[in-house]
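In response to reviewer comment 3 from the previous cycle, which asked for concrete evidence that the modeling workflow produces usable outputs, we include below a single protein chain processed end to end. The sequence was submitted unchanged, and the resulting structure tokens are shown without manual editing.
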Amino acid sequence: MCTHLMISVPSNPGQNPPDTAKTYVSGRAMELPGVLEQSVYVMPRNQAWPLQAGQGGTTLQWKNPYGFVGIAPSGRAWASQPAFCDGINTEGLSVGALWLAPGTEYPPIGTQGNQVSYLDFPAWILGNFASVEDFLAALPTISVVGPAPGTPSYVPLHFIVTDSTGQSAVIEFIGGKLTQYKCTNGVMTNWPTYDWQLTNVQNYFNLTLVGSGTSTTGAGNPVGGGLVGLPGDSLSSSRFVRATILSQGFSQLPADGTGWLPAPGVFATTPPSKNPPGFAGPEQTAVMVALQLTQICMGTPYGMLLETVQNSLATTGIPATTPPSSTTTYGDYTLWTSVRDHTNCKYYFMSAFSGILTMIDLSLLNFDTTPAYPNNASIAVLPQGDAPWCADATKLLTPATSVAGSGRVR
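The workflow returned the following structure tokens.
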């Protein structure tokens, strides 16, 4: 299970006349059971693809004009070739691969021209396109192929592509055929298919984020009262509704950011010259809200969703004549959350067992000299190795000093 969404904020709030520039930020969560080793990889410009000829059915050959960073499974099972499930390129275009089962059926391998394996599809997009429009224009020139359902290498996926203008495209493979949709809110979850999700969300047209007052006023319909009936479970249809409704809040605030940017207050001067100390500017606000909103819509920390499994006699030492017993263990959980700043070309990620948000600034990487596969640079996401999982501020604490005659300490 996975959730994808997008928000935007004014890039330069408080301008007169209002600045129409937007900072677009998207976020997604990757949720699966078990332990899947994953890393962030840096892919240079002019990398030759496919990384292994014929791997997974890819017959098309290309060199990518755009460098990108993205997350792919690592470890022994995937060491031969990173298959990206998430990433962003130097032009601010991102790709997310999310689970879609049942129903996903790729065109078969070996029957199409210019074949690109579904495992290479994200890399083809990230390496070749700067916008959703360019991607959709080139999509008919290739055939995305994959194994049949039930085979060992089959993974049921659908894809969402988002660019720096806030446009998104959803790609699904149903009945062996490619289906595409355009969207402007960047919301996608899992099964059922995207068209069904769009129909279902209309059932919640009566929900609103607006109330007559906050909880501190105690008056009438407080903020949140208009969300009574918003589904709160972990089903993909419920997460789609939550992501759609909750991400609309930013679009209902003043378009120039007056009164809400920079968070958490407003500037005394217009236009603002800089952020006051300790205040969050547009970029920080957008990134952190996208991270928080993605985690709220997903809402599945480790150990919150459980499943019942049969004990393995081979590993428990129980005699073979003993009937197998069942036990409860953890099920799906959020392995990692990523945030892509499409405007500033930055990639953020946070793993399941770390509270530290890690950032890669693509503008500071030289994608012309970055080592190519198989020597490309990488950072472990899960497990994260020796990276710190919290920031120890103990040494930053300073003793309070009294202010003479004031009766106050500071």
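The mean pLDDT is 86. We consider this sufficient to address the reviewer's concern, and the full set will be provided in the supplementary archive.
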